[in-house]
Amino acid sequence: MKALTGQGISTKTACRVLRVTERGYRAWRDRPLSQRGIRHAMLTETIANIHRASRGCYGVRRIHAELVHGLGITVGRDQVALVMSRAGIRGLAGTRRRYVNREQLITTEDLVNRKFTASSPDQLWCTDITEHPTREGKVYCCAVIDVYSRKIVGWAIDMRQTTDLVLNALDMAIEARQPVETVVHSDHGTQGGFKWSSQHPDLG
């Protein structure tokens, strides 16, 4: 109905085309939203905000993790998928990566020499991943901390501990702070590929 009336078509004509009565349409239009409708509208807005904050990267799985573990909202993954489908929200398609044992790979040297101090903001960032048990299984949170202010400038939550988890947190930090030249330090672990590329992110 809104699609028709929004184009300048009268309500009377739109009702005739859709084969509904004007009285029935007005009753539907003036009916207050149900609790389910209100929850659906709020959920749609929250999901859209999370998707926008991820710069369009997050799909159903990551948005569900943000809702449940990041915001404490009780919602099923199927409902998240339904809301995203109706709202036309989609994440970036990923591909399965072949596991590579990184223990023997050469990584970038420690550029800070274990001296975790900074004289100005965005001079040195450190990343770390914490594991949190939940009723739905383990969830991992990666945080990017500005050593100068000890402030978390970027973070990401996921159900898996992958390099993408770190990169998503780093993307948020770069988007928020827009640094010019920053050293990013992370200990060697299962995300070794992140450090292997460089401790200097491409900020261009």
Please name the defining characteristics of this protein.
204 residues; alpha+beta; 4 strands; disordered C terminus
Parts with pLDDT < 50 across at least 5 consecutive residues: 190-204
Oligomer category: single chain
Strand residues, percent: 15-25%
**What distance separates the N and C termini?**
46 Å
Radius of gyration: 23 Å
Q: From N to C, what is the helix and strand string?
A: HHHHHHEEEHEH
Number of self-contained structural domains: 2
Q: What is the number of E strands?
A: 4
Count of helix runs: 8
Shape: elongated
Helix content: 40-55%
What is the mean pLDDT? 76
Biggest sheet descriptor = 4 strands, mixed
Q: Which structural class do you get from the secondary structure elements?
A: alpha+beta
Molecular structure report:
With about 200 residues, this protein is α+β, with helices and mostly antiparallel strands. It has two domains: about 1-85, no CATH class; about 125-195. Helix content is about 40%, strand content about 15%. It has eight helices and four strands; from the N terminus they run ααααααβββαβα. A four-stranded mixed beta sheet has the order 3-2-1-4. A hairpin with a 4-residue loop joins strand 2 and strand 3 (about 150-160). Helix 5 packs across helix 6. The longest helix is centred in the first third of the chain and has 19 residues, at about 35-55. The radius of gyration is 23 Å and the shape is elongated. Residues about 190-204 have low confidence and may be disordered.
